[in-house]
From TrEMBL:
Descriptive protein name: ITIH5 inhibitor
Cited Gene3D superfamilies: von Willebrand factor, type A domain (3.40.50.410)
Organism: Chordeiles acutipennis
Molecular function (Gene Ontology), one example: serine-type endopeptidase inhibitor activity
Keywords carried by this UniProt record: Glycoprotein, Protease inhibitor, Secreted, Serine protease inhibitor, Signal
Length: 719
């Protein structure tokens, strides 16, 4: 409960860096504990996070990439709890395990599925041959089952894991499970195998063969009799992680804390890519899952340090969506990432390139994991020597090295070589919640789709509307002088294709000497689709909200691609957003940002229709009503009267008229600039708020709210 740091703790930090130093004197130590301090120094921290590429830091030829997004909807879980109920669990261990499981069961979500296996020399499955959905009744019955578990018999670890793996494999194969769900086994024991298969190497191979890389195994050991090396290797070989708790510790809170680390999966199949000709010696870059509260860290060396930037791409799956995030990171950032000269952050040569140390730390950790998983003595020797060499070079204490202290002066010497049976317990457990691995070289990221061609049909600027009629070989344009706060129906095809697009106006003062009382711009574009499933997008110049039953927040200043079965959103940072629906409808939204806006300028959006093939002939709205109709241009001579002195003369003056659905609309020739002024369009301009050009009047196109899906002209509905 004490939020203040211990005595002698110094925290130095800048906007992007923090360094914590704990250096208590003997007197300060005795104030904390009479016989000195024996415990963990724990630092809890967080950073500002969003669904972005993450934080990439570069210094002196090395880079480190931190990826920890938040505000993502959790993925459903299929989880099997495999619990030791042998005689050695009697007393406090089984009691605390039950208490933790009661709390964990209560935290399961309605979309999760689960089962429980208790094992000793016998294997007891709570629900035979199935996983059950989380409901109040099922949770109640599961708690009864756990409450009635009693310690007896030996420990059949191999049999329990085989039963759990078969149960989960059969459930995945025989049921139409949610494709986005994450499957896992949580295995808990306090002992060594005493029944059935007892040889560790055989248990490891049997477990790997049973799981077949289809889900992850997380292992928990309690007490001093547990085969920790076996549990650790089982987790490492099956994309999980392990925890070990002492018998006299508060196992219930530790178990709950461990479950909290893996209980909320947010992303799956995360892959981080950098150009092959730009980096080398990159640490793990493929991860089966990402859990809320954890952090993925990748580090490596730069090959070409003279380059201006490093291209980074992150691909992952979330819910029913495929996500691609990409950006270019500036390499020359010495002022941001160099800690030299920053008060409180510089204290020794070894810390000057903290990014290189992060790379070496992760690399040593990978070498230790590989050493543990290897059965080849020659390979183990190579891995041990490499890890030992790096540890001595970078002053890290590892299972292969030991730190020696000088009695007089209490100064430490650099780590020296020592051989101990290696374990990764305590070495960077909190850095990555999951053991990842390098992505197989055969896996290549999906190539970006060819850039979508934008048509002239658009609503942009103040707002200026342009309708392109390719078969007639001309364009028509008009203005809508709306009021700030008005929501305009741009495309209304909810009844047929299920698509609706609305745009909301904001106001700005009119330019000096202008004829308008104010200007208006589109500040929000809302795109709704209800086929084959409901989804909506709300787009502003700064951010995008995508909701298809699960809410996803994206920033407009980061390039990204989000793809589901019927919808794709592609963001080009600070430039445009392309929305593709069922591959037959495409809209492009341009982002207009002003670095130094004039009083009459506002950041705003432009809306362009790229592909209208999937919209029906009954489509309506200010733009939609023209997509499947043609107009004709008529030229006629009108008589005009001019007074010259006492004489009045009559002249014939040519006028142009559009014929639209039987209506005659007078037009004049104009030029417009679109695509941020990059292209000039010649068009026939209809005056007076598009009077007679559009069906009805301007007020007929006002929506009552951003999600209004008027199903036909003049009616109002809501999605």
């Amino acid at each position: 409960g004490d939020v203040s740091p211990p005595p002698s703790t110094v925290v130095g930090h800048t906007k992007t860096l923090a360094k914590v130093t704990f250096n208590p004197s003997v007197v300060e130590q005795t104030r904390i504990a009479r016989n000195g301090i024996l415990g963990d120094f724990i630092i809890r921290y967080d950073v500002n996070r969003e669904l972005s590429i993450g934080d990439v830091q570069i210094l002196n030829g090395y880079f480190v990439h931190y990826f920890a997004p938040t505000d993502l909807p959790p993925l459903p879980k299929n989880v099997v709890f495999v619990l030791d109920s042998s005689a050695s669990m009697v007393g406090t261990k089984l009691k605390q395990t039950k208490e933790a499981l009661f709390t964990i069961l209560q935290d399961l979500r309605p979309e999760d599925h689960f089962n429980i296996i208790g094992f000793s020399n016998r294997i007891k499955v709570w629900q035979q041959d199935r996983l059950v959905q989380v409901t109040p009744n099922n949770i109640r019955d599961a708690k009864k089952y756990i409450h009635n578990m009693s310690p007896t018999g030996g420990t059949n670890i191999n049999g329990a894991l085989q039963t759990g793996a078969k149960l989960l494999n059969d459930y995945i194969a025989q049921n139409d499970i949610d494709a986005r769900s994450v499957s896992l086994i949580i295995f808990l024991t306090d002992g060594r195998p005493t029944v059935g298969e007892t040889q560790s190497s055989k248990i490891l191979s049997n477990t790997k063969d049973a799981i077949r890389d289809k889900f992850c195994l997380f292992t928990i050991g309690i007490g001093n009799d547990v085969d920790h090396k076996l549990l650790e290797r089982m987790a490492l070989e099956n994309c999980g992680m392990t925890r070990h708790f002492q018998e006299d510790e508060d196992a219930a809170s530790h178990l709950k804390g461990f479950y909290d680390e893996i209980g909320t999966p947010l992303l799956s199949d995360i892959r981080v890519d950098y150009p092959e000709d730009s980096v080398e010696q990159v640490t793990q870059n493929f991860f089966p899952n990402y859990f809320n509260g954890s952090e993925i860290i990748i580090a490596g060396k730069l090959i070409n340090q003279t380059s201006d930037s490093l291209h980074v791409e992150v691909t992952a799956s979330n819910s029913k969506k495929y996500i691609l995030l990409k950006t270019d990171v500036a390499i020359d950032l010495p002022s941001r990432n160099d800690i030299r000269g920053v008060p409180g952050l510089e204290d020794g040569k070894g810390d000057k390139n903290y990014i290189e140390r992060a790379w070496s730390y992760l690399t040593i950790k990978e070498l230790l994991n590989s050493w543990l998983k290897s059965d080849n003595s020659q390979e183990k020797d190579y891995l041990m020597e490499k890890a030992k060499s790096m540890a001595l070079s970078y002053n890290f204490v590892t299972p292969f090295t030991v730190l020696k202290m000088r009695e007089a002066g209490l100064h430490s010497e650099p780590p020296q070589e020592e051989f101990i049976n290696p374990s990764t317990d305590g070495i960077g457990e909190k850095v990555q919640s999951l053991q990842g691995h390098k992505a197989p070289p055969g896996i290549r990221r999906q190539q970006d789709k060819q850039r979508i061609k934008i048509s002239k049909t658009s609503a942009d600027g103040d707002p200026h509307f342009v309708i392109d009629f390719p078969s007639s070989k001309f364009s028509v344009c008009f203005n809508i002088d709306g009021e700030p706060g008005d929501i305009l129906r741009l495309v209304s095809d909810h009844k047929e294709s299920g698509v609706t697009v609305n745009g909301q106006l904001i106001g700005a003062p009119a330019p000096p000497n202008g004829h308008k009382k104010h200007r208006t711009y589109f500040n929000t574009i809302t795109i709704l689709s209800n086929k084959p499933e409901r989804s909506y997008l709300e787009i502003t110049p700064k951010r995008i909200i995508l909701d298809d039953g699960e809410r996803l927040l994206l920033s407009c200043d980061r390039s990204a691609v989000v793809r589901s079965s019927s919808l794709e959103v592609s963001i080009s940072a600070n430039s445009n957003i392309t929305v593709t629906i069922r591959d037959t409808i495409s809209f492009v939204i341009l982002i207009h940002h002003y670095k130094k806006p004039a009083p009459y300028q506002r950041d705003h959006l432009g809306f362009y229709i790229s592909n209208s093939k999937g919209l029906s002939s009954d489509s309506h709205g200010l733009l939609g009503q023209f997509l499947n109709h043609e107009v004709k241009l008529q030229e006629s001579l009108n008589t005009s009267h001019q007074q010259a002195g006492q004489n009045q003369t009559e002249t014939l003056k040519p006028t142009n008229t559009l014929k639209v659905k039987g209506r005659l609309v007078p037009v004049v020739w104009k030029q417009r600039r679109i695509y941020n002024g990059q292209q000039e369009v010649e068009c026939w301009f209809a005056k007076n708020n598009a009077d007679k050009l559009i069906d009805g009047s301007y007020k007929d196109y006002l929506a009552s709210h951003p999600f209004d899906t008027g199903t036909s002209f003049g009616t109002i509905n809501s999605l």
